[in-house]
# Entry
Amino acid sequence: MDILGVNLTRTSTGTDLYDGAAVLLRDGVPMVAIAEERLTRAKHCGSVRLASQYCLDAAGTDIRSVDYVAVSICCEVPPPADWAAHSLRLQGLDVRDDQVVVVPSHHLSHAASAFLASPFQQAITVVADNEGNILGPRTRQEYWLNSLERTTVWACTSGIGTEIRRIASHGDQPDEISLGAAYNYITKWLGFSSYHDAGQTMALAAHATGKWSDSRLFEWEAGRLLCRLPQRNDAKVEAVAGWLNAEFGIPLDQGRDPGEPITELHHEVAGLAQSALERALLDLVRRAVEETGIRTVCLAGGSALNCVANHRIARELDLDGLFIQPAASDVGQALGNALWTWHCLLGQTRRWAMNSAALGRPYEAAEVRRAAEEYAAHIDVEPSPDVVGAVASRLAQGQIVGWFSGGSEYGIRALGQRSILGDPRRLETKTRLDLEIKCREPFRPYAPSVTAESASEWFDLTEREIAPGAPATFMLQAAPVRRHLRFRIPAVVHVDGTARVHVVHPGQNADYHALIERFRQLTGIPVLLNTSFNAAGNPIVETPGDAIAEFLAMGLDCLLLDGLLITPRRR
# Structure
């Protein structure tokens, strides 16, 4: 049985939505998944046409042959199946009305994408994002002025049957806002363009002294967690400015415009937002665990990508397990829709747990060679009997390398399939990446990839936290670097002594694990600097042609392209 999961990216009132994606589920197991942006080369784009065709082609089927097309939507009342089918046909997907299944809740889809990909038979799942579906009838044209899913908690069980049941909802009234929206508002006050830049607020927060870390941005009222910011979606920055002025006496005009210098005040406000989000998520999870007795937890929605908060949840709560699906944002809706249809609608048993995010299709050797031939005037393909050893040697010499291996990652993190790699021992690696290659702000850290065998030696991680499928294996946990080893890998240590660590198991990515091990043999360091393979403003590369074009544009020293060692041709 084939199920195509997609998310609708335009509402009935004409609101464009972001992060289109598709997943092809066959007999309960994902065969292939991809975000639309990887194919259009436009970040966070809506539509699912190219992603759907990519999945259908990879699975060797067509749209009329799949059994179900499972969809969800946000900022809207969940639509009837015939409207959803019509919406997909407008995008070029020739679906029949009777193929389409609508998941009845945006947050339910998020919860399914996490719990049904986890190894757990039961779990509490917390979904925290900007907003989901309109609850009840639509009473106002502007979707944000209706009751909305904003922060929800779900009790999930599977066995003979699967149940995902909402047990709590927070901030869902018309005059309330969500955890994710509050963090987003402050991100915009800090001069970043959208909620997609929330990671910059998280990085900036590490520079704060913490003088406002006890701020009551969120508070409990009658068992519900509410935000103290006013609901003003038409004036987000002004709402933050007014609250900061009333709470701390910060002048109303101190919000940062894009491109302006970052000041100590901006550090402190970022720290305020980060500490408030951490406390709120800790409180939500702690209360749900105490009330249900379930000690395994899943996180979903955009806030689940906050790796600093994730580390506190993993470390400070007495949990039996924590799982975060790496495509936790709306890209993950496609997976949640397909899994919900298989397990909850059709009542099928679970056959899969997510240990790897490499759900893109692999490229055949002939496709790789054709891409290299197209760029033959600009590159040299260097013969090598040991390409992994050759790349390790170049990294040890300080070169910065593009690494393209197997199917691409599902989600926003580069996990050794589409990565740019460097020597973490050299601060000049970070400097060159910031100034010449990635062109990004110096306050943002780069991640370390470490072999599973050495992870707990170099980072403050427990055995449970480095197991396959744990958050650190998806680069979703920021852990302290062991104090006595920080000076040995300065290019990946953040200002607060932590790192957004990526633990690499040989069973999940054998080639990448082998590369890190070869680097260890040369240098004594089982760690590589790892960042996503994309130039500033572009999505992560998908095809061999994308990789060569980006490699040349960014000025990388060499590229390992599925076994081919490529260098720029020197003129």
